[in-house]
């Protein structure tokens, strides 16, 4: 009896220490691809706003991810560690490598609700998460192409700048872009369809590295002086305003005359500054702050067993040089 009592007290003490270490609130975790990307910092700001408004809810929103967006293995390890923490009651993941993340979820088989945010798992693995909260990425690609066709109705040559080879959200945008430019479904590479041809050496993959994105743009402009369009399927290069300004300086005459068109993803403040300065022609923006702000509420609904749609889209903002002052939804 004494041994049983001692064991019970030890277990109670361990539980108390665990709760103290992680805080009394239940934790709703958001894991992004990398903390070095300012796009994801907007998700963090949304998460923190939710915390400020729900301080007495019994839940707290935790924002985390690997230091580098290129660290796929690091993101996998963070998710696995969180799934083993007793205070984590739900998790929202932006998978950098969708197949790898799906493999982890299959192996661990989490007992808590898992959702995706910003980037989804592949359609084949969608059953591993309860819902996806974020952008309709295929539609985002469609919007890229629609705006480019308005700028260049006769078509031409184009280079697509993509991120991580296995990022489902980026691949969906590329598919929407190619389908819309070509007028056909399932085009893997433009070769004259709809008047558009992808140049040799493209697409280029940034692996979510901002410095590499700018170098790729500079190299492409130098090697292809007659290029018709460059499409940043994500905003990487523009997240370093000074570097991006240096790259676009070499083609500013072409940008002003619209001989060369730049269409880019996202509408963060430095990107809108670039648009207003004529360093791009179109920005199609996601709503990352809204993603971070809504995710904790969605996770609580999942915990409580409420009905949640399998896909929750957060909308897009379409900005041109002419609408730059008014295009972003409040």
Question: Could you walk me through the main structural features you see in this protein, from its secondary elements to its overall organization?
Answer:
Helix content is 43%, strand content 17%. The protein is α/β, with parallel strands linked by helices and 330 residues long. The strands form 2 sheets. Strands 6, 7, 8, 9, 10, 11 and 13 form a 7-stranded mixed beta sheet that branches. Strand 10 (261-265), helix 10 and strand 11 (282-285) form a beta-alpha-beta unit. Helix 2 crosses helix 11 (288-303) and helix 3 runs parallel beside helix 4. It is globular and about 60 Å long. 45% of the residues are buried.
User: Care to count the β-strands?
Assistant: 13
Tell me the major beta sheet. Answer: 7 strands, mixed
| Approximate helicity band | 40-55%
What is the end-to-end distance? Answer: 64 Å
Shape: globular
Q: Encode the helix/strand succession as letters.
A: HEHEHEHEEHEHEEHEHHEHEHEE
Provide the β-strand percentage band: 15-25%
Cα-atom radius of gyration: 22 Å
Secondary-structure-derived class: alpha/beta
Total count of helical runs of at least 4 residues: 11
Average pLDDT, to the nearest integer? 93
Low-confidence stretches: 1-22
Question: What is the secondary structure topology, with strand pairs?
Answer:
Elements (H helix, E strand, L loop, with lengths): L1 H21 L3 E6 L6 H16 L5 E6 L7 H12 L4 E6 L4 H11 L5 E4 L14 E3 L2 H15 L4 E7 L5 H15 L13 E3 L5 E2 L4 H14 L5 E4 L8 H9 L2 H6 L3 E5 L3 H8 L5 E4 L2 H16 L7 E3 L3 E4 L10
Parallel strand pairs: 1-2, 1-3, 3-4, 4-5, 5-12, 6-7, 6-8, 6-9, 9-10, 10-11
Antiparallel strand pairs: 11-13
Helix pairs in contact: 2-11, 3-4, 5-6, 7-8
